[in-house]
């Protein structure tokens, strides 16, 4: 009887090893088989879908979070710049680079870059604006065809697929900018705008916090100060205006914002609303879903599974903020993005087979076609309502 059990154990072990070898062979074939030259390249014509340039920022310990966010918003037509600021280590930046190179489609299209020499990001300081403008300048050089510049942080996550986003934005004028803004400064006037602050991150290599001067300044009369959400979606033409600065306004506002608390909530808002060429192309929304405490704190609440339905019904493109690998992110992946673990969100461009061991986006076809999901409709309604407000002038720089 003992010999029979030993024989059965040996037979079972051989069968199990054979199964593992078979699966390994499939996986190796899928991941190492050479791809044909691109069956399509990104088209940038009046009839092709729009594309986006994403600037994704994070700090110490955010490499994995940034990579997960990247997978959730990846599309071969887009451009991506990943920035772990000076608070993170070179090892984290190298790790992020290795993670990017591990994805075959990202290697093939070469549309993801990691900032090698990091910028400082002082909390509440103007070094954040300097980093964003540098990121925008790099993305402008990386590709001449993308249409909108989107800022995200490691604490953000999408609520729609990139096929959904591009589908809805196909009917949006490419000169429009989505910036939550107001000229009603309220309490921010005395707490944020009038105080004179200095950001050590502008001139010191070591980390430090902003410090306040002893005196305050008056509101300027050469321009009007606007404030709002720090998260923006900017047209390529407006970003070029800020980066290239053929008019003196962007430089003037940059110098003024250098000494403002949370300049990220002032700079783009004030530039666009004081510019005759761009102020009428401003949609008053940051396209984000956030939940605030009452009274609000410095940052919105961390979103949990209890907020999932609110996110779904919001019609927003993105939500923030989330704890690392929170269960609600898995819900978004499973129910909205249809994203497998460690994989990109499948779109119309993905042509590979779908199974637990096969990534549908390991093979691709025409990257210029879209297949929006049912969740695109809510976002489309949001955009349509915003465009109605734009026509009525109620959402513009007032």
TrEMBL record:
Main location: membrane
Cell compartments where the protein resides: Membrane
Pfam families from the UniProt entry: Branch
UniProt keyword list: Glycoprotein, Glycosyltransferase, Membrane, Transferase
Annotated membrane topology: Single-pass type II membrane protein
A Gene Ontology term for the protein's cellular component: membrane
GO MF annotation terms: glucuronosyltransferase activity
Matching InterPro entries: GLCAT14A/B/C (IPR044610), Glyco_trans_14 (IPR003406)
Coiled coil: none
Entry superkingdom: Eukaryota
Descriptive protein name: Uncharacterized protein
Record organism: Daucus carota subsp. sativus (Carrot)
